[in-house]
Amino acid sequence: SSELTQDPAVSVALGQTVRITCQGDSLRNYYASWYQQKPGQAPVVVIYGKNNRPSGIPDRFSGSTSGNIASLTITGAQAEDEADYYCNSRDSSGNHWVFGGGTKLTVL
Amino acid sequence: EVQLVQSGAEVKKPGESLKISCKGSGYSFTSYWIGWVRQMPGKGLEWMGIIYPGDSDTRYSPSFQGQVTISADKSISTAYLQWSSLKASDTAMYYCVRRCGTRPQNWFDPWGQGTLVTVSS
Hints:
The structure holds two protein chains of two kinds. Chain A has strands at 5-6, 9-12, 18-23, 33-37, 44-47, 61-66, 69-74, 83-90, 97-99, 103-107. In chain A, strands 2, 4, 5, 8, 9 and 10 form a six-stranded mixed beta sheet that branches. In chain A, strands 1-3-7-6 form a four-stranded antiparallel beta sheet, with no helix packed on it. Chain A is globular and about 40 Å long. By secondary structure, chain A is mainly beta. In chain A, a hairpin with a 6-residue loop joins strand 8 (83-90) and strand 9. Chain A starts with a strand and ends with a strand. In chain B, a hairpin with a 4-residue loop joins strand 5 and strand 6 (57-60). In chain B, the strands form two sheets. In chain B, strands 2, 4, 5, 6, 9, 10 and 11 form a seven-stranded mixed beta sheet that branches. In chain B, strands 1-3-8-7 form a four-stranded antiparallel beta sheet, with no helix packed on it. The termini of chain B are far apart. The model of chain B has no long low-confidence stretch (mean pLDDT 97). Helix content of chain B is 0%, strand content 55%. Chain B has strands at 3-6, 10-12, 18-25, 34-39, 45-52, 57-60, 69-73, 78-83, 92-102, 105-111, 115-119. Chain B is mostly beta strands.
């Protein structure tokens, strides 16, 4: 079982806002990073740290943390955002990393 | 351009050994940790372990300790993941990743393209 818990599936209407969450005790001490994976492709980082986007990631992606819950928000979801999303952070020991179980995002 | 390029797909039989590779370019290979991630067919991402090529300091996820060996050859900017005796359950896509940032803010970028390992009799 993962130390980071994500909802298995979330859906959003085209153009609407969706929040994907990641819960874990280690998030009180370490920031999460978020990865988007489309079918047949390697994951790509979309958010890291407090709320940082790598170059090339649209500004509709944002991140936040409150207590032990990290969130990835997509404001104005597009069809191309349909993908699996994974959070990652250090584990409770701080010595290893762990992924959440992943959230499959469907854009309706 | 920072890149991690992995070795090609492998098909092996149970009990065989295997070593796959991940070559870094476009940055100082010895200055960044390189991690390995497993993705079994239709499943999520699993953290396996990480190595610092500068001094070969290696950390394994408890789930993978003793199951695989992670190493690096800094002279050719290449990290490795190896098995001494493969099992059918090792069938998966394996990604290498570069660790960026410092505590409490780390992330992994870029990712290698993945190496598909198939173990079947």
